[in-house]
Here is the input.
Amino acid sequence: MTQIDTFANSLLEEAKRFLEKAGEEDEPAKSAYLHASLLLAFCALEAHVNAITEDFLSREELTPHELGLMREKEVRLVKGMFEVQNSLKMVRLEERIEFLNTR
Here is the structure.
């Protein structure tokens, strides 16, 4: 298991623990634990998507547009060829998940 997989799993375990703690508390502590759980769960989801993305990036058949989407980098037409640039282009997490699911 890679470091990112370990990190993603630890985030998910922390989110579950905050959810358990929320059940033991009264307001407003309950609300704070629920917020912490939700935020950590989304962080875990993104970390898992990033781990899967790393695996996909080793595939040679990906087009420049697919590489750009996965690396969150801009793709430009340079001398008639599409090339992945170093400039950041944020992609919605939902779109990355949809792409991974489709592929």
